[in-house]
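hey can u check if this looks right to u? its 407 residues, i copy pasted from the old doc so theres a chance i mangled smth
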Amino acid sequence: MKKLSVLSILVAATTLLFSQASLAACGEIVLGSAISLTGKYSTEGLNSQNGYDFAVEKIRQNGGIKIGGKCYNFKIIYYDDESKGDRGATLAERLISQDKVQYMLGPYSSGMTKAIAPVTEKYQIPMVEAEGASRSLFNKGYKYLFAVLSTSEQYLASAITLAAEMAEKKGKQASSVKVAVAVENDPFSLDVRDGVVEDAKRFNMNIVLDEKLPRDLSDMSAILTKVQLLKPDLLIISGHTKGAVTGVRQIGEKNIKVPMIAMTHCESADVTGKFGATANDILCSTQWAETLSYKDPIFGSAANYDQEFKLAYPAYKDKEVPYQTAQASAAVYVFKDAFERAESLDKEKLRDALAATDLMSFYGPIKFSEAGNNIAKPMVLRQIQDGKYNVVAPSAFASHKLNWPRQ
């Protein structure tokens, strides 16, 4: 028995050594990314970078990328764009011209993606991006831009449908719902607004407030004073992480009583960690949730991704993994899938393979339109309930009942 035990250990050790040697023998595929590690998008930029790096390591652990009988591992060259569009464009040029990068991962935010996309398009560099949701990115005729996320006009439009459903449950007409909208003056948030306004018009709802947030996003008290006077049934706020932090803080400070409040970027803003019960019953749009039933062979289920990511990055252990992180990992997974289907490192063959993507991932289904946006994955709404983010809409994805009206 002892001999068998020793033999088993030797076999296992030999297998591990061969496995490590095999991975060491893999070639390298270099991806480039100008990402916001400082400036106003630094929180989301770091979340995105962590998602990219986690995916690179998971793919390496699962044997890398197989092309023509050879294996490859991803390596990412990062530069800090400082949350500035002009710097992002300059760094994209540097990655392509000096570092000879042939494949790009996107930056954080629609505005930064808008700055970089003309550069990657000029050099015919395939870019898979995870953080630029503005639909205006996909009406330019770009052939080398592919986005794994749902476009931004979908982010909070479902809150309108939810408000209509609640009104009808109370025996009222959906058209009786009064809506207040306050958004940042940037491409992403303006698209969020457009989606909300379009859906509100569909129900003949009255938009009683439609304003832009202050440029620095540090004080929206004047807007919230108007909200108190106008008494809307639904308040919509979109201002990335800083806007979410300011919104929840000042909603608490001013004791704003609105039956339904919906906003973007709750998780990355860590509004539950910062403000506790003040954040309860707020609706948060999300591209992804760990309770959804998506899965793939590399990351496993959405719940498994959540668990393994938190083990790899303990700073997220006691809070929600932001969807920005999950979709960043999904972008790297899309590259792996496309390289293997292309069976080539040629960037034109890769571009064609990306265009033909039809993939199920832990993040959700990914299929690109001719314009490059993902047309397969829906958005969902989570509500903060006793500090937990629970999916409440659409009903097909709901894990919990909606708390309404908000107390």
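Residues 154-289+380-397 form a domain with the Rossmann fold fold (CATH 3.40.50.2300).
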